[in-house]
Amino acid sequence: MLDKLNVSKSGYYDYVNRKPSKQKVRKQELSKKIKAIHEESHEIYGAPKITVKLNQSGIKVSEKYVGNIMREMGIKAHYIRPCTITTKDSDFSSKLKNILKRNFNPEKPNSAWCTDITYIWTQEEGFVYLTSIMDLYSRKIIAWKLTKTMEVEEVLKCLEEAKRRRKTDNPVVIHSDRGVQFTSKKYYNLTVGMIGSYSKKGNPWDNACIESFHALIKREWLNRKKINDYSEAYQMVFEYIEGFYNTVRIHSHCDYQSPNKYEKNYYQNNLN
Known about the structure:
11 helices, five-stranded mixed β-sheet, Transpos_IS3, 14% strand, Integrase_cat-core, Nucleotidyltransferase, domain 5, 5 strands, Integrase core domain protein, 42% helix, single chain, alpha/beta, HTH-like_dom, 272 residues, 2 domains
């Protein structure tokens, strides 16, 4: 075989016994770490976030190099693009103003919240409805409710939960669209002492952060498998929000920390 390949016997055995280079050893070790981070993120992180996690652990590496290794290993961020569902806006009063005015970066927690409702399809029970409330400072989901109907009483349990969890006496701007749930008398009563803010009709960009979160949970989590019923949908939403998004998932807005850690750092740095 060596004769056919025109390779000397001594050259062949030198190749077989040669120790791998430092560069090759580093690449092998880096490949293992990339695979571990990818699996820990439930295969959600791509090269940009994996690079950040590696840098945070003290491993200096470029995003391009991480991307090249991921391609060689055949791994990538897995998500499915969500379908777009449009809804008609409810009748509204000219008194509903956009107080937030797309100021999505408040300087401290509990300055501004935003809320919205999204649809989740189940095979056996049709649509169920996820209502979420986000604190814009950290992008943390401070309360959420999954309901089988869009009735006002059911949807607004989410706001009641947010008020219990945050226990804030500060005037909070709470932003929503102009759907019937958020222009109802019950919503008005629940937001006494808060500052109501509303998107312009047909303008989802005014509530972009919570819209983005609902697209994210579908793209990264819910659309990756068929959901049979409400119970399965609830379990998946719980796992994503409480077990990953708030606690683990790094966010560029949060200096590549999780929302929980970002808020914790704020309170530690502002105790005095």
